[in-house]
Amino acid sequence: SLSGDANYETLSQLLEQRLVPLALMLVAPLISSVFLQGLMVHLLKLFRGQPAEVKDAFCRLRNAPRIIGLEVLRMLLYMLRALPFVLGIVAISLLPDQMSAGWMLFLLMACFIGMIAAIVTALYRYAMADWLMAEEPGRGIRDCLRESGRLMKDRRFSLFRAEFLCLMLNYFAVAISSYGGVILMVASLMGQLAVLVLPQGVRADRKS
Description:
The chain is mostly helical.
C-alpha cells in the first residue's frame, strides 16, 4: 500500500540520516583505539632504538577485545565523573520561575565548569592506561586504569605542559591542514611520551 511504502521510506531516511551516523560516531573511537595502541607500540620501539615498521599499526589486532573494553570502561568512568553535575544542571533547570535569572545562570555555570573540571581530571588520571596496555598486552583493564591513576598522581600538570607545548608547535599546521585532528592526536601522544611513558621511567615507578 501507499501508506506502507511511505512508512518504509521514512524509516530508511531516518536510518541513513540519524542512526547510521550516530552508530559510526560511537563505533569509530573504539575501532581507532586498537590502531592507536599499535602506534604507541611503534613509538616505544623508536624510543628504545628497536626496529620499527609500518605493520606495527596492526600488531594489537589480536588484543582488540581487551583494548575496546578498556576504552568502554574509561568512557563510563568519564560519564560517572560528570553525572553529578549533569543532574545538578537538570535540577536547576526545574527550579521555580521565582528564582532570579542571575542566580540560576550562576548555578548553571558553576555546574558546567565543575563538569568540565571533573572530565578533564579523569582524562589525565587515565591518560597512561593505553600506554600500559600497549607495553603489556596481557595486562588487565582495571589494573591498567589503577596503575595509570598512580602514575599520574603528581604528574598531571607536567603532562598538561608537555601537551600544550606540542599543540602550540603544531598550531599553524592544524590551522591550514585538513588533517588537524590527526595532528592533535599525534601532539597529545608525543606529550605523553615525553613526560612519563618512557619505559625506564615506568619500570622504575613500579619498583619503587
